[in-house]
C-alpha cells in the first residue's frame, strides 16, 4: 500500500490528512492553528505545519504530499528568498482602491475578464502588488519575486532545493495569469507593479516538483478551493458551497468564465479545466460572532436556529461583518433588519445569521449557473458545514438538494489525491462517502424564493452596488 499526505494551509489553520493512495481511506490526521489577522508572517504557516506534523508517526511511510492553500495571498520575497513584509491575505481589504484603479487603467471590467477571466477586487494578488508599489516603496524596491501561500509552503517543505512552483489553479487567482493560454500576463504585472517580477513556474497538475529533505515527493499543490473540488470529486452539474472563513460557491466548467459583473471569478481547477467561483468574505466567522453575541456554544446555537421557522419570521441578517467582496462592498457593515417586539428572539437571530451567509451564496449560485450550466445539486463543505443547523437550513435558502459528505477535510483530502496522482501517474478514483442527502421540500423552495426576494431587496436598497 502506498501512502500519501495532503495539507490544507487555509486561513485559520493547518490540517494534514494521511491517506491510502489507492482507496483514499484516511489513516491519520494532524492540525494546528494559524495566527489571527489579515496580514501574517509566512513563517507562521511553516510553524503551524511543523506543529500539526510533530507526531513522528503522522508522516511515517508517506511517499508523496501536496499543499492546498488559501488563495490570492501576496508573499513578497527579496533577492535571497526572504519575505520583505508580512503576507497580505485574501481577506485583507487595504488594496480595495488599488483594485478600482487597476480596473479603470486596463479599460474596465470587460477588458479584465477578456485578459484573465476575473475582475480585480481587493482579494486578488494583482491589487496587493499595486498596493505594495504605492504604499511601501522601500519594500517594493526590495521585492524580487511574489509567490502565493501554497507556493511558499511547498517551497519550504522542499527545503528550498528547487525554485518556487505554483499550479494553474492557484495562479488563476492572481489576475495576472491567463488560464486559457497558461501564461503570465507580464503586461499586467508591469501595469500593477511598475516593473517585472519573478513569478513561480507553473507546474503540470500531476507533476512531482521536488521532495522534502526526508525524501517525501512533493506534488505542485493548488489553491484550497481547487483542492476541495478534487477532494469532493466535483463533476459537471454540481456546485460546492464551502463555509470556512470565506463563503465560496463553485462548479467545474470546460470553458473559461468571463463575467464582467464580477460576481463569478474565472478561475482554473486542479485538473486542467476551469473552476468558476463566487467568494464572500463572510462565512463561518459571522456564525461564531452571532453565537458569541447570544452567549451560546455551537450546539446551542444550532438548537436555537432550528427552533425558529424558515425565514426567521422576517428577521434578515445582512452578513457584512467583515465588509464584503461579492458584491464588492469592502467597507460595508453588517445589519439586522426587520425586527419587531414579537420576532426579536435569540432563535430568529441565530436562524437569520445562517440564512444570511447562505443567501449571499444562493445569490452567487444564480449567476454561477449562467456560466457553469444548470446546477442540480450542492455539496456542502468547510468548517461551518459541520453545523446540523447549517445542513438542515441550506435547502431552504439554496432551494437545491444538498449533499453533506462524511469528508470533513475536503481541501486536505484533495491535496492528498493530487499527491497520489503525481505518485502513480493516474488520478485515483477515490469514493466520496456521503453523510446525508437533503432534498428540498416544496416549503423549502418557497422559503428560498421569499428569502431571496427579501434579502435582494434590502441589499439593493441599502448598498450602492450589487
Ligand atoms: N459546528 C459549527 N458551527 C458553526 N461554525 C463552525 C462549527 N464548527 C466549526 N465552525 C467554524 O468553522 C471555521 C473553520 O472552518 P475552516 O473551513 O477550517 O476555515 P478556513 O478554511 O477558513 O481556515 C471556524 O470559523 C469555526 O468557528
Ligand atoms: O479568496 C478565496 C477564494 O477566492 C478564499 O476562499 C480563500 O481561498 C480562503 O479560503 P478559506 O480559508 O476561507 O477556506
UniProtKB/TrEMBL annotation:
Protein name: Xylulose kinase
EC assignment: 2.7.1.17
Region forming the signal peptide: none
Domain Carbohydrate kinase FGGY N-terminal: 5-220
Residue intervals of the Carbohydrate kinase FGGY C-terminal domain: 239-423
UniProt family annotation: Belongs to the FGGY kinase family.
Top-level EC class as recorded in UniProt: transferase
Tagged with keyword Nucleotide-binding: yes
Domain of life: Bacteria
Alphabetic keyword roster: ATP-binding, Carbohydrate metabolism, Kinase, Nucleotide-binding, Transferase, Xylose metabolism
Enzymatic reactions: D-xylulose + ATP = D-xylulose 5-phosphate + ADP + H(+)
Family matches, as InterPro entries: ATPase_NBD, Carb_kinase_FGGY, Carb_kinase_FGGY_CS, FGGY_C, FGGY_Carb_Kinase, FGGY_N, Xylulokinase
